[in-house]
Amino acid sequence: MEICYSNDNIFFINWGVQKMKQLLDLFFTFAKVGVMTFGGGYAMLPILQREVVENKKWATEEELTDYFAIGQCTPGVIAVNTATFIGQKNCGIIGGIIATIGVVFPSLVIIIILAGLITNFANLAIVKNAFAGIRVCVCVLIFNAICKLWKSSVKDRLTLCIFLAVTVASCFLNISPAIFVLVTVGIGIVLELLGKGVNKT
Amino acid sequence: MILLRLYWEFFKTGLFSVGGGLATLPFLSRMADTTGWFTHSQLADMIAVSESTPGPLGVNMATYVGFVSAGIPGAILATLGLITPSIVIILIIAAFLRSFKDNRFVKTTFYCLRPASTGLIAAAGLSVAELTLVHSNTRNAGLLNLLDWKAIILVLILLILTRRVKKTKNLHPIIWILVSAVVGIVFNFANV
């Protein structure tokens, strides 16, 4: 049997292999970033700097800061948003999707294993006591996280009012958090339309 | 059916949670109320496990909730649901990156959204605190029995160590989680 490739075919096969390699590289690099990030969000920035900027040179320091800033002010998990950005920049839409799947893959595996174990041992007295202690710690961790968020989000009378209104309302009213987000988006747009946006200050 | 609902619930969570980290908490807290897939005390455990394992907090929480609600397929679909809005939104924004970042409407909106997100997390945090520090079954047994004193003493110690003491202030949360687990076992926190 004669195998005959035209130049076009060789070009497409090479292109396909190249693309495949790039996508695999994206997947494994972001899986690595996922494994090395504890807690997500800001913890991820130094690891991205090393892997994406220094090792792979997929983005410059400035681009990474941009992506990260946009990742923070768009809905969703910051790590996921940043991964989509960098993947998209290097390999188009498929790249964005593959990088994102890469960053969540380790979580999926690790959490499924742990959750399975914990569900099986949940009735042991020692496990119950350990988690009762851990829950106390979680309260403190949430409190500390809120204090940090407070510093970066509550900056003047307007933001203080929004914070207090949302906290009190969502404590006492049985409304989905999505409604609060939508109303706040509305407030932001109205303020800007009235010429009272942040650009003035 | 539950798989589709998981995907949809987490799609909404991914679409509306702004700010990363604990931003998904208020949505999960609401989900525990409306769906009954898991309890609030399970949610507190999930936060602890998610904080002490690698990976973004929001993704870990989604995987965990999905697994508890509907096994491995649930874990996968919940996570996919959470990341779908991100992928779509970012791919759209990537097309006109610069104009998005400098748009005055975007700036003002997110200026307002950040404290709102903090407020939502604060409210969800309060409900976790209530669950942990207040005895639910001794409501009419007087003020002294209402509060879980062992837990409150641990809260105070942890607050001092994580906020005031210079040497221990910057330690990783996983250390505090492990210490608290040991304290819980030694002092019989679950009262079993």
Blueprint of the fold:
The complex is a heterodimer of chains A (201) and B (192).
Chain A: H1 7-36, E1 38-39, H2 45-55, H3 61-72, H4 78-121, H5 125-153, H6 157-172, H7 177-193
Helix pairs in contact in A: 1-4, 3-4
Chain B: H1 2-16, H2 25-35, H3 40-51, E1 55-56, H4 57-95, H5 97-102, H6 104-133, H7 143-146, H8 149-163, H9 166-169, H10 173-186
Helix pairs in contact in B: 1-4, 3-4
Structure description:
The complex is a heterodimer of chains A (201) and B (192). Chain A contains seven helices and one strand; from the N terminus they run αβαααααα. Chain A has helices at residues 7-36, 45-55, 61-72, 78-121, 125-153, 157-172, 177-193, and one strand at 38-39. The N and C termini of chain A lie far apart (75 Å). Chain B folds into two domains: 2-133, no CATH class; 143-186, no CATH class. Chain B is built from ten helices and one strand, in the order αααβααααααα. Chain B is globular, with a radius of gyration of 19 Å. Chain B starts with a helix and ends in a 6-residue tail after the last helix. The model of chain B has no long low-confidence stretch (mean pLDDT 87). Chains A and B meet through helix 1, strand 1, helix 3, helix 4 and helix 5 of A and helix 1, helix 2, helix 3, strand 1 and helix 4 of B.
Report mean pLDDT of chain B, rounded to a whole number.
87
Radius of gyration of chain A, taken over Cα atoms and rounded to an integer in Å: 23 Å
Biggest sheet character of chain B: none
Provide the low-confidence segments of chain B as ranges: none
Strand content of chain A: under 5%
Number of helices of chain A: 7
The number of strands of chain A is 1
